[in-house]
Amino acid sequence: MSVPAEPGRRGGRLKSLSLLALLAGNGVVLLAWSQQWYVLHLDDRAIPASGQVAAGPLLALALTGLVLVAALALAGVAFRIILGVLQALLGGCITLQAALTIGDPAHASSSVLRETAGISGQHAADLVDRVDGSGWPFLALAAGVVLVLLGLLVAVTATRWPVSSRRYSRTRLVAPDGRSAAEALDEGDRDAADDAGVDVHGDDTAASTRPSPSPSSSPRPAAERDAVADWDALSEGDDPTR
To answer: Could you give the domains of the chain?
Structure first.
C-alpha cells in the first residue's frame, strides 16, 4: 500500500511544475515571434514577414511573462494570486494579438511592404495578391491560451504552494527549554547577580552590605539593553549581556 505524499511535497511539486510550464509557454511565444509567419505575394514578388513584423507586441508580452515567473518564485500567497491573474491577462493579450494577425495577415504585415517594396498608405495591404502562412501564428495563439489557463491555475492554487524561504526573514530566538530569548537573558541576569553576591529579592540593607561587582564585569539590566543592539551583537557572535 503506497503512502500518499505529504501536503508540503505536493505543494512544492505543484509550484515547480507551474513555474516550468509558465517558462515554457512564454518561451514558445518568444520562439514563434522570432520566426517567419507569412509570405506576401505582390505581383511577381514574394515578401517574407516574420512575427517581429506581423505581431511585434508579442516580445514585450512574453518578456513581461518571464519577469512574472521570477516574481512568482519569491512572492507570498497574496502576491501569487495577483501575479497569477496578471499572467492570465498577459496570455489573453497574446491570444488576441495572434488572432488579429491570423484574421488579417496582409494588414498586420503591411509595414514590410513599405520597407521592402516602398509601398505605404492605408490601402497598401489591398495590393497584396496572396498570403502564404505558416504554423507559427497558430502556435503563438495556442501558447497564449495555455498561459491564460496556467495563470488562472496559479491564482487558484496559490495557497497550496510552500512558503518561500527568506534569508533575511525575522527570526525568533527560543531557548532549549521553550522560553523566549528575552526570558532567558533575564534569567541569566538574575543568576549573574546571585553569583556576584547581590540579593535581588532582599531588602536594601542586605544589598548594601554586600560588595557590588565592578562596572566592567556586571551585566546590564534587561531594561537598559536595546533589543536591536542585542540582536546585532548576537548576529556577530558576541554576548550582548556583557
So the answer is: 15-159 (1.20.140)
